[in-house]
Amino acid sequence: MDTTGIIPDERLKREGIGARLIKRPELGAIAGVILVTVFFAITADSSMFTLSGIMNFMTPAAQLGILAIGAAMLMIGGEFDLSIGSMVAFAGLIFGACTVTFGLPLILAIPLTLAVAAGIGAVNGTIVLKTGLPSFIVTLAFLFVLRGASLVGLKLASGGSTQLRGVRDAVEGDWLAPFFSGDAFGPLFLWLAEAGLVETFKNGRPKIPGIPVEILWFIGLALVATYVLLRTPQGNWVFASGGDRTAASNSGVPVRKVKISLFMFAAMCGALVAIITVMDSGSTDARRGFMKEFEAIIAAVIGGCLLTGGYGSAIGAFFGAIIFGMVTIGLTYTNFDQDWFQIFLGGMLLIAVLFNNYIRKQVTGER
Amino acid sequence: MTHDTTFHHGDPVAQTQPIVEMRDIEKHFGNIIALAGVSFDVRPGECHCLLGDNGAGKSTFIKTMSGVHKPTHGTITIDGKPMDFSSPRDAMEAGIATVFQDLAMIPLMSVARNFFMGREPTIGKGPLKRMDTAAMNEAAVEEMRKMGINLRGPDQAVGTLSGGERQTVAIARAVFFGARVLILDEPTSALGVRQTSNVLATIDRVRKQGVGVVFISHNVRHALAVGDRFTVLNRGKTLGTATRGEITPEALQDLMAGGQEIAQLEGSLGGTV
Predict the structure, then answer these.
(1) Which of A20, A68, B35, B94 has the most crowded Cβ, counting Cβ within 10 A?
(2) CB contact under 8 A, B113 and A366
(3) Quick check: ipTM above 0.90?
(4) What is the set of domains in chain A, with CATH numbers?
């Protein structure tokens, strides 16, 4: 057998740029964003795509997106977490109790909330890995446990109500508060308003006071997650653990550690959303994050994650969440009934799953 | 097909010292005696075939050699020094790499990512420590080219490769990470004719680099095509080792089956088994 002169396999066609692009997991979500933008550009009031309109839909997109990035990382690692929505409520309770009931400063309250969330994530992960049960069923149990714990805990903390107020007063003036609530770059926007570069109210104040911090967290998290997935050994381990657990551990990948860390990360994403939204509204209630686990998973699937794991991207989940925000808020700018949203949601999920399935076959060369 | 001369065989290997030598290995699982005295060695640059029918103890033997099982009796020496493996990692560190039938490969991941899975090279320090993707891609393409496979690119998914090509990736990966002894568990069992010959060519290439290859098979023709020495395992025992040219395929076949019915069967099937 002569192998010195290697002949390219004559049965391999050269791949065009289109064929190569389609194999990127995030392509579907980007196409979706373009589609939705075109749709609203035609049907919606033109104010939707002004700076303030964009901030309007990016804020809910960011809150969902932080969860979606956590969910996406976990899905790529081959697991699910249905409890992250309830985690938002539960972490909200912990955070509220820390700040209001115990009067802790943010420098303690925030790490404590994140640590509790991470601990619950680790419990989830450990149960899944130790028993070999599907993460779907284990975390479904925690969906109810955490929601119930939030209700019970809130009643205890507030003396009978399912809402805990007074968070805003409690964190007022804390030096860490600006990182987790309100708007960033305020002075910049003031300056831009003076220079006439952004829209202003009649009194000369800019129409948007700054960029809501959750949007910055959202973008930052998407970038970090993408970097980790694509450029670090740990990212490779995430793909490997989700792709084939046995193969990965035979090759020396610490599968158990990887998966538990991902559960912890997803739970901490829930806690971060809780901290941001609770500080924003000044109170926490037991319905916080209701159904968000499903929306986060849908955003991750729209972003190209396979339900079977081993494939997907954080940037895809980023765009998936933006699609969500655009549609929920965008419908109010149109004459359509807002309840179309649910129909859209289901339809989008179905299309995304079909599309992902097709892509998977393309990637693996299955027929 | 009695003798296959497709492959060039190395020089006689009798003079060189074995890398791994296993003597009188026994392995009991409770009251089951899986291995009842197996002796086997591998020298650098040879392909030593371990033949045996299903249930002969091949898998148990490989797992003992690769550190998964601890032998109940018997000694394992590496470069003449006695070794006591307590995990596959120990065996790997001693230079014994095993390519199992499932190949430990992930179809959805690229060749480069699979190649370095669990052993990713990094550059940078502290929080900036990252995978050296350029080096990974380059090494994967280069190592595969050496094995005679032209990748479309380092990002080609393993799922798009054929069974034989995947086998080659797994072998190339083991050799790249410094394997001195390469254990191949039935590498040709699920492959077509063309792919089989590709894998056999890969074995030949690896052997020429001085790696000792342990080729496990129950296919006498595949074994004879590349093997330098042949050891037959039957009912947990070795029935002796033969060198290339000393033994006919028929004799090997008979040894594997315990010298019984095959002879009659072969008559009725016209010598095709």
Answers:
(1) A68
(2) no
(3) no
(4) 27-362 (1.10.3470)
